């Protein structure tokens, strides 16, 4: 999916995590938008800057800048005024879904471990 570019994968997951923090922290919103089939509306999305990504991941700013540019070119991330968002319709994009479906169980396990260790903020 990321052609063995683990830094890009970490950056993408960090963007996705940040985007969903508000929804995950609010039980009512989590119930409404917790399904992968749902798209979180912009008013509930927390955007993240490249500097925020560098701080959150520990990657150098220039690396983050380059990797984010590639994710934008690939169409998986969009830049909005105020920050970055995982493309809101990825859950309906066949190229993304066909790439992620075989890895769904591993991704759930990995996110669970990242949350348990404190590497990701659950809200």
Describe this structure in words.
The protein is mostly helical and 123 residues long. Helices cover 57% and strands 7% of the residues. It contains six helices and two strands, in the order ααααββαα. A two-stranded antiparallel ribbon has the order 1-2. Strand 1 (77-80) and strand 2 form a beta hairpin. The longest helix has 20 residues, at 6-25. The radius of gyration is 14 Å and the shape is globular. The two termini are 27 Å apart. 20% of the residues are buried. The mean pLDDT is 88.
Strand order of the largest sheet: 1-2
Query: Biggest sheet, in brief?
Result: 2 strands, antiparallel
Strand content: 5-15%
- Mean of residue pLDDT values: 88
Share of residues in helices: 55-70%
Distance between the termini: 27 Å
- Overall structural class, as computed from helix and strand content, comes to mainly alpha
Q: pLDDT below 50 for ≥5 consecutive residues: which ranges?
A: none
Taken in chain order, the helices and strands follow as HHHHEEHH
Q: What's the count of strands?
A: 2
């Amino acid at each position: 999916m990321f052609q063995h570019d683990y830094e890009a994968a970490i950056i993408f997951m960090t963007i996705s995590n940040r985007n969903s923090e508000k929804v995950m922290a609010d039980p009512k919103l989590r119930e409404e938008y917790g399904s992968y089939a749902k798209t979180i509306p912009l008013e509930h999305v927390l955007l993240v800057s490249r500097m925020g990504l560098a701080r959150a991941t520990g990657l150098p700013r220039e690396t983050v800048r380059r990797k984010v540019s590639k994710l934008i070119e690939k169409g998986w991330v969009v830049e909005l005024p105020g920050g970055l968002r995982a493309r809101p319709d990825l859950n309906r994009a066949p190229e993304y879904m066909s790439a992620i479906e075989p890895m769904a169980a591993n991704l759930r396990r990995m996110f669970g471990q990242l949350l348990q260790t404190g590497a990701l903020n659950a809200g």
